[in-house]
Amino acid sequence: MTREELKVVNQARAKTDALAIMGGAPVYTGDLVPDGALIVKLKRSPHAFARVKNVDVSQALAVPGVVCALGWRDVPRHRHSFAGASYPGNNPFDRVILDEYARYVGDPVAIVAAETEAAAEKALRLIRVEYEVLEPVLDFEAAEAGPSVVHPEDDYVYQMDIGGDLAHNVLMSERDEGGDFEAVYASCPVRLDETWYTQAAQQSMMETFRTFSYYDHAGRLTLVSSTQITFHARRLVAMALGLPQSKVRVIKPRVGGGFGAKQSMVTEVYAAVVTYLTGRPAYIQFTRRESSACANTRHAFRVRVRLGATEDGIVRTLWVDSLENAGAYGEHAANVVGLSGHKTLPLYGKTEAWRYTGKVVYTNTTPGGAYRGFGATQGCFAVENTVNKLAERLGIDPCELRLRNLPEVGKPMPAYYDEPLTSCSLDRCIATGRRMIGWDEKYASAPFSRQVGPHRFRGLGMAITMQGSGISNIDNCTVTIRLDDGGFYTLSIGASDIGTGCDTILAQMAAEVLECDVDRIIVSGVDTSYSPYDKGSYASSTTYVTGNATVMAARELLSKMRAVAAERLGVKAEDVEFDGMNFSCGEKRLTLTELGVESVNGHAEWLTASASFAGHTSPPPFVAGFAEVEVDTETGAVKVLDLVGVVDCGTVVNRALARVQAEGGFLQGMGMALIEDVRTLPSGRLATDSFMQYKIPSRLEAPGVRIAFEESWEPTGPFGAKSIGEVVINTPSPAIISAIRNAVGADIHSLPATAEKVYMALQTARDGNN
Amino acid sequence: MKLNFELNGRKLEREIAPDETLLHLLRACGMHSVRGGCDTSNCGVCTVWVDDRPVLSCGYLAARVEGRRVTTLEGARAEAGELMNCLAAEGADQCGYCSPGFIMCALAMFRELGDPSDEEMRRYLAGNLCRCTGYESQMRALAKCAEGRRSK
């Protein structure tokens, strides 16, 4: 099959749920809460680190309408993790529902449930908590030296040995390498050693975390939750409450964005424990402040990059050394850090030796979690900036330098688990982006070359990146498709559409196989009772992993339908023609609707097919990103004039949705580069905990992101497709920071590049020159 | 306290708390298009009209609508139809959570400015945040919708 033959895939299609979600149909968690559900609220620690000596709920319980008020001694204590990831894995079980320790400002210390919101809020104020305040660990670079042990508990559980040292706040450490880094580095005529910092950016999806729970007809504790990890949540809630999984059910309705934030459980256990203890339906909805400060963020990183190269810009060796701040709990921390190496190093295909070392430390700050890019973003910022500095030092155009080092299709990628590179159009991505932004006309290697006003200068920067398409040999996704008796199809999935449009693109893939349009396919999901297993929507996996399962299942259904139709028509299956509506052989004809009706009458077989897919590889999508900025040297203010992204996601499954994914990812990346400042008070409290303090880009800052696609054909992908969800966030931060350096020589090593930071860097540069 | 107001053309009398927000009241009235986003009147998600002017219902006391007309997307579906189709065609809904507030503000903009330029649209809608789309698809949809309005 070639791309030219595709009829439904590779086209633009509106999302199948578009008019419902835009028009105000009751389809999100908060719209579906049953009448009479208790309102659940959390009492939170004002201290960054404290032992909770006593929780006195007596006055709270006296408030009319309060049904329960729970301290750590009142709830089940079973070790679990909030991290949605395949099991077993390397997320430690470092949580209980409520603990004797409060580990960050905002860590829950009590749960109340009441008939009304007002009663619950009053009860919160009346809970008296006695704390033994402990010295918090706030500086992640100094966490190994104390002053405290963030997880001193003796029932902490590692699922496997991941090189942790809890006495020194080390959650995990690892090392992976190929070749002799020291020897190659020492022999390189050009060596760089640069250290970079990325901030704990917030996912900031518009729908905050929320869950309601009730007992269903079968006596199962049922959660309706805004989640990316429907099936993992069932396992984790069961674990937290000490219930068998058969007694827990999770339903995912429409979700108002996630970007990884909802790859961890956040609100689920608090509603669940209230229903478990009271038998009543219960609802918890986080405020924006809670969503910002008391859930999870991108992990803050320090990344040191050592790079050895030849005089003509061949990168001979790279060492990515990452230190990651897990925050107070370890959701995804041990997985995130690895991507800073494994999804940056393979881009330099001529290295003779490479090394990645990673360490993750606990601190008494807001927990980190999954955020689009998942470590690759942090690594990309560090490595791409370092490579740009190499280009600057050698006087080689950064685009040219990339082209000299690209990995080759057909060859294994040593730093990417030795997976072979099976598709890559990065060379075309660079060429197209270069043309779109006018690189060759505008680029000048020396700072202050492009003056456009008395104190305004322009500059260009670029970066390349990769991600994966699912987690090879781990992620498993299953779909079931059936022919219904009305002559339409139902595609049951466990993949969790969180606004990304996976319901639509999976329907497109099934429609492509079944020769129909998407409106003949109803996509149904997700309810752990009725949906087939899918590990959930994360790791850029749905298009590739669930997509492959969808194509397999649809093909199997088609072949079953053809066989039954042939029998009815009295001909051979291979002689049956199918045009999407009719099975025919010569003059003989059976419509799809007739087949559907026959399949539920008498001694017939209801036509259903299921398929599971788990990839042996995780083919990387690629992006080349370009930025043009204007810097005001009087104020340090940076304006992004142009932001261009050229994407290789294999075949574009939906031209509209892929473009919007890319545009949105690029703007998030720009926010991380310039706007999204994370500030913490000396007490450890996050100061940037609302949209008043934590600014995300508005349409006034949006530079008009321009996206183009340079499609490759991934032989293992559904219709040649790879992923797109995460890869699009990575390049803006290195491209923009490099563009600032190109414009005015300000060497910014930490994000975001606020006006103040750029101004101070300019003063430092000026002082250095004098 | 008692509140009399008009919601999407229907006269209503409701018992409200003095500190109740319009957002809370409208959701209690079953208006699912009205959604909260930030609690601090920064994101535009909760936008509705009071006497045909857009307001942020999360920071607007319900008591203020006494004797006034409140319109939510449920009451503006006919007027919103063309814009919703343009947004859907561009894939500009993504998670969809911020869409109703955005649509209400955009319709108010068309009423107020007639045929706005891209720059005017960006300014008018600056308070409507969207984390998914990066705004460009929304701007394309608005431009197409405006084109459709001009050719009528």
Summarize the structure in words.
Chain A is of the alpha+beta class and 770 residues long. Chain A folds into four domains: 3-26 and 471-613, Aldehyde Oxidoreductase, domain 4; 33-134 and 203-293, Aldehyde oxidase/xanthine dehydrogenase, a/b hammerhead (Aldehyde Oxidoreductase, domain 3), CATH 3.90.1170; 161-189 and 300-411, Aldehyde oxidase/xanthine dehydrogenase, molybdopterin binding domain (Aldehyde Oxidoreductase, domain 4, 2-Layer Sandwich), CATH 3.30.365; 422-467 and 619-770, Aldehyde Oxidoreductase, domain 4. Chain A is 27% helix and 23% strand. In chain A, the strands form seven sheets. Chain A has a seven-stranded mixed beta sheet, with helices on both faces. A five-stranded mixed beta sheet of chain A has the order 7-15-14-13-8, with helices on both faces. Chain B is α+β, with helices and mostly antiparallel strands. In chain B, strands 2-1-5-3-4 form a five-stranded mixed beta sheet, with helices on one face. In chain B, strand 1 (2-7) and strand 2 (10-15) form a beta hairpin. The chains are: A alpha+beta (770), B alpha+beta (152). Chains A and B meet through helix 1 and helix 16 of A and helix 2, helix 3 and helix 5 of B.
Class derived from helix and strand content of chain A:
alpha+beta
Radius of gyration of chain A: 27 Å
Number of domains of chain A: 4
The profile of the biggest β sheet of chain B is: 5 strands, mixed
Radius of gyration of chain B: 15 Å
Q: Which fold name fills CATH's third level, the topology of the largest domain in chain B? A: DNA polymerase, domain 1
* Fraction in helix of chain A: 25-40%
Structural domains of chain B: how many = 2
CATH architecture term of the largest domain in chain B: Orthogonal Bundle
CATH class designation of the largest domain in chain B: Mainly Alpha
Strand content of chain A: 15-25%
Count of DSSP-assigned helices of chain A: 18
Order of strands side by side in the largest beta sheet of chain B? 2-1-5-3-4
CATH class of the largest domain in chain A: Alpha Beta
Tell me roughly what share of residues is in helical segments of chain B: 25-40%
For the record, what is the CATH homologous superfamily label of the largest domain in chain A? Aldehyde oxidase/xanthine dehydrogenase, molybdopterin binding domain
What fraction of residues of chain B sit in β-strands?
Answer: 15-25%
First-last Cα distance of chain A: 64 Å
CATH architecture of the largest domain in chain A: 2-Layer Sandwich
Structural class of chain B: alpha+beta
